[in-house]
Amino acid sequence: MQFTQAIVRRPAPSCGAGLTTATLGAPDYDKTLTQFHAYCDALRGLGVELTELPPLDAFPDAHFVEDVAVVTPEFAVITRPGAPARRGETVHIEAALGAHRDLLPMQAGRLDGGDVMLVGKRFYIGLTGRTDADGIAAFEALVSRFGYSVVAVPVAAGLHLKSVVNALGDDTLLVTEALAAHPAFADYRRIAISAADEYAGNTLRVNGTLITPAGYPRVHDAIGSLGLPLHVIDTSEFRKMDGGLTCLSLRF
């Protein structure tokens, strides 16, 4: 898919008060902003026009915009985030996203956009601490009428499905060794990475370029075999808050 637009949100000064399972210390706010701007510059450099939303200090995780919506060429689903503290974020994305897509709000269950991976016309959705079976069923009821199918994938380790697997094309996945043998992914070429390199599994393909976290040379070598340009970005401050590259934008 060629992306022409993306929605991002500037991190708030309160971003260090967000939800995290990491034990890497508090993020430095100035460094967080520097890394955010580098990310935005990378997207712009790849031909993506950005809509930058203002920070929401009352919602310290709100710059992880991926979790509150799932965008397709035809519509956008407004999710029901699994963490109650994040439920109030959805209303703040609706105006910006509604300018580009018809909005389909979920009415039941729990589902984070970080658990949703779209490959072709098939959604793979992680069953995690943030996304439950009711949420997957509610999501499927919305998208199936547009010809999309849904496959649930239990995730034993990792906050979200896209913490451990991401599509680098219609036939290639970057996936942790623990999930590489899952039958749902049997028809894909799989580039398996070790648990030590798991964070770099959250690599993002944008318009023929792979944007990948700094500090993972083994992963850089592995995905370099695809022959696509690599754009390496430092995301150390977002990692402290369980965030990665896909989390920071809604691309379409």
From TrEMBL:
SUPFAM superfamilies: Pentein (SSF55909). Belongs to the DDAH family. Keywords: Hydrolase. The keyword Ion transport does not apply. The active site is at H160 (proton donor), C247 (nucleophile). Its EC number is 3.5.3.18. It is an enzyme of class 3 (hydrolase). One of its GO terms (biological process) is positive regulation of nitric oxide biosynthetic process. Signal peptide: none annotated. One of its GO terms (molecular function) is dimethylargininase activity. This is Dimethylargininase. InterPro entries: DDAH-like. It comes from Burkholderia ambifaria (strain MC40-6).
